[in-house]
Write a structure and sequence with these properties.
Elements: H1 4-7, E1 12-17, H2 27-35, H3 38-49, H4 55-64, H5 71-78, H6 87-96, E2 100-108, H7 109-118, E3 126-132, E4 140-142, H8 157-163, E5 170-175, H9 178-184, E6 189-192, H10 194-203, E7 208-209, H11 213-225, H12 233-245
Parallel strand pairs: 1-2, 1-5, 2-3, 5-6, 6-7
Antiparallel strand pairs: 3-4
Helix pairs in contact: 2-3, 3-4, 5-7, 6-11, 8-9
The structure holds magnesium ion.
Length: about 250
């Protein structure tokens, strides 16, 4: 009887969404509600949530209704936002168990860095969109991680999941929104709330519901303690299909 695989130390990779997952509110949206035409911003945000606009179309529309403002001013505004306090526990838990954590966001790097700095959290890689100032009086979005084939997201989180994990590692995804639906499906353990949870329920994708990161840590403690841990077959299939496409 071969149990060879179980003798090998398990490697875990953890991918975490930012807005509405690490933070309580969606900071990306709050920027435009605060510094843009609020009514128009609300209408655009609705059209993004309903998938009537792709994420890039949505961001472009939001930047059009943004009033002149500096990134400095936005940064000051952003500092008032709260995170799920249990995120600190998830970070410590990950370090204790040698789990590499990566933040994947379809929002903007400057506010992710601002919030993490405020919370004294360092050393977590971030893949997200960026903002630049080009002298026009308001910041402009830059999307360094678009996928050439798929236009749904501005930052293709799926590509980061694939590039930062291998088939024999156990992947964990924690998210809440529409940009998490695609990447989560390539992972073994999905923690879902809000619209990601609704998607998983509707499409019968296996997931763990959570309210805050304490729920996530408790569940991971149980999973990590298991003698045998199974990878999620549907995730393995999704990966295989993707590799075939090249
Ligand atoms: Mg989110």
């Amino acid at each position: 009887m071969s149990v060879g695989h179980e003798h090998v130390k398990r490697v875990y990779k953890m991918f975490v969404d930012f807005d509405g997952t690490i933070t309580k509110k969606d900071i990306g949206e709050q920027l435009f509600l605060q510094y843009g035409d609020t009514e128009k911003a609300e209408a655009i945000i609705k059209r993004i949530s309903s998938r009537e606009l792709t994420s890039i179309e949505g961001w472009k529309a939001l930047f059009e209704i943004l009033n002149p403002v500096s990134i400095d001013k936005l940064t000051t505004f952003v500092r008032s936002f709260e995170i799920d306090k249990a995120f600190h526990r998830l970070v410590s838990f990950s370090r204790e168990h040698n789990v590499e954590m990566i933040i994947l966001s379809d929002g903007f790097e400057f506010y992710i860095r601002t919030i993490l700095e405020k919370e004294n959290i360092t050393g977590i890689p971030i893949f997200s969109n960026r903002l630049i100032e080009n002298g026009s009086g308001k910041p402009q979005p830059v999307f360094p991680y678009r996928d050439e084939e798929c236009k749904s997201c501005a930052n293709c989180k799926r590509n980061h999941v694939i590039e930062n994990s291998s088939d024999d590692e156990f992947t964990i995804y924690i998210g809440n929104g529409s940009s998490d639906v695609c990447p989560a499906q390539y992972c073994d353990f999905i923690f879902a709330k809000d619209s990601l949870r609704k998607y998983c329920e509707k499409e019968k994708v296996t997931f763990f519901p959570y309210d805050n990161f304490n729920d996530v840590v408790s569940k991971l403690e149980t999973l990590f303690a298991k003698k045998r841990l199974k990878k999620r077959h549907q995730a393995e299939l999704k990966r295989k299909t993707l590799y075939k496409q090249g």
